[in-house]
Amino acid sequence: MNRIDILSSETSNKIAAGEVIERPLSVVKELVENSIDAGSKNITVLIQEGGLKTINITDDGSGIHPDDIEKSILPHATSKISTIDDIFKINTLGFRGEALASIAAISKMNITSRIKSMDFGRELRVEGGFVKSIKDAAANPGTSIVVNDLFFNVPARLKFLKSTSKESSSITDIVSRLALSHSDICFILKNNDKQVIHTFGNNNLQDVIRIIYGKSTGDNVTYFENHMDTATVYGYIGNADVSRGSRNHQTIFVNKRYIRSKLVTAAVENAFKSFLTINKFPFFVLFLDIYPELVDVNVHPTKSEIKFKNDREIFKLVFDSIHKAIRESLHDDFNIPIDTHSDIVNSSSDNESVEGKQIHKNMSIFDNDITDSKPIKVDIPIDLRSSDYEQHIDNNEPSVQSKPTPPAYINENAEPYIKPSAKPIDTDNNNKYTINNRLKSDYTTPNKNNLKLKLLKYIGIFNNTYILSELNEELFIIDQHAAHERVMFERYREQIKQSHVSVQTLLTPIVLELTPEEYSIYIDNIDIFKNSGFDIDIFGDNTIKIQAVPYILGKLDGRNFFIQVIDSIKNDKSIDTLDLKYNSIARLACRSAVKAHQKLSEVEVKTLLQQLAECENPYNCPHGRPTIISMSLYEIEKKFKRVQ
């Protein structure tokens, strides 16, 4: 029988540190937030090797009193709150007193701080949670904290960290968000002695947006603002030109705290799609100022999740403000008459109205956490016959078009929709299965034994989308878009592997200004882009010039394709190997395949069928949808009541 014992302070501190400090990003976030709470106007962040070697945060804030500097690394030591009642009226970013204690327990840390009323400062050196020295030191007013050899005494944590480039990218992202939240503070971020971010601290949010996201984004945003008795919302919403295929450029602050909220995100996207029918997610920077007692920020150790006391009111406030701003923006640009009634949320306060039912419907989706790569669960009508379906499958995200064609509703995790009558029946055991399984059962070796596909007899084409063929009393239906996607995917992937990618030189090079994080991703994967057929030159700070693109792209927009590749590399947590990155690029490239309803000649159809038969896996498109289904003669005759 095991006896109960009390853990040593060293062990318990390391366990507690693991909850607060997950990676270098966590250190930067906690220390910069402390600098903001100290009233700093200039904050400098220096990192080496993704923060694993060195993290140096310097500010000009109020500093730490020399008598308190040793207490600062003790667990639950804080100057932000004093009683439990203070938890319900928190006005600071930090309050638990866990950050410095957790960082000190798993690193070698130096703290140098000076308050303005004194002529000298105090320096504390800590290693693995143990104080090594404390002495007077020369220092400027403010605090400088240097964290070296993060996780040096927790080697198990080091094994689960990402590459230094990904850690650097994450730090760049969080510093960018913090810079947006405090436009009155000058932020400087340097990665391996190279300046990545430098904001002016002039209290102009739009200037910070230009610095972080580029001039084109800064010039395509609209200011919004709305008020209620207990809360105020304001910020900038981008137009269709700066929308993206992911939610990477969506930022929410509640009382200047960077958070993730499905409630707020859904409100913005519902308002946005009321006007702009595009299959992308809007850019926005949103601030919500609310009485502290109406939100609970003490939900998670990272403080990235909060709870609102009244979700319905917050949803309506955000929706109305975005809806009004976009409506007035379109009116100014195109002289569109302004409708005083909201499409989804009416301005009245009748809780029993259609408005209340609609809000309740939208709020039923707030079950899971939102991440950059995980879509909000919203069932939106999608026309199976349109190219929007391909876009939906490609991104594994819901379409955001506002006027879709009924009738089908697609869930992003559901299997592709096929009518029951279109599935084959096994005459031996009356078991339904797709042509994918049937052909694989007959011919187990891909590419060499696709004889059955090669023998298909072309009959015709239905709805300029589905190719009809027959063989041995079976009807085969081939999706021309999915089939061509598979052909292009395998062809392009093979070209990349053999380093023989056909490229096309652009008549006018594309000059693209990236965010610091996107630029960092490109630099880390520069060989990937080169081997994939891109000819790219550095064209200034965070700016590139694309001179050639893969020939397989055809008429696709090279600018958007490049951004989609960057987003794919960033969002897909599994893309760590070279092959997976190439496969991801190839999947994106095959969007230039023939579309549904695109008329093909008989020669083109037969050529496509021949190329599909030569594929390694002709049964599914690169996104997992089936390329072929079949109907047996038995099933057809059963439908016509010829057999029982």
In order across it, which strands form the biggest sheet? 5-4-3-6-2-1-7-8
> Would you give the CATH topology of the largest domain?
formyl-coa transferase, domain 3
Please state the oligomeric state of the protein chains shown: single chain
**Residues in helices, as a percent range:** 25-40%
Briefly say what this structure is.
With 644 residues, this protein is of the alpha+beta class. It has three domains: 9-198, Histidine kinase-like ATPase, C-terminal domain (Heat Shock Protein 90), CATH 3.30.565; 214-378, Ribosomal Protein S5, domain 2, CATH 3.30.230.10; 415-644, formyl-coa transferase, domain 3, CATH 3.30.1540.
Secondary structure: elements and pairs:
Elements: H1 9-20, H2 24-37, E1 42-48, E2 54-59, H3 99-105, E3 108-114, E4 121-127, E5 130-137, E6 142-148, H4 155-158, H5 164-181, E7 186-191, E8 194-198, H6 205-213, H7 215-218, E9 221-227, E10 231-238, E11 250-254, E12 257-259, H8 262-273, E13 284-290, E14 295-296, E15 307-308, H9 311-334, H10 354-363, E16 380-381, H11 387-395, E17 409-410, H12 435-442, H13 451-454, E18 457-462, E19 466-470, E20 474-479, H14 480-497, E21 503-513, H15 516-524, H16 526-531, E22 535-538, E23 543-550, H17 558-571, H18 578-589, H19 602-613, E24 628-632, H20 633-639
Parallel strand pairs: 1-7, 11-13
Antiparallel strand pairs: 1-2, 2-6, 3-4, 3-6, 4-5, 7-8, 9-10, 10-13, 11-12, 14-15, 16-17, 18-19, 19-20, 20-24, 21-23, 22-23
Family: Belongs to the DNA mismatch repair MutL/HexB family.
Organism: Clostridium oryzae
Keywords: DNA damage, DNA repair
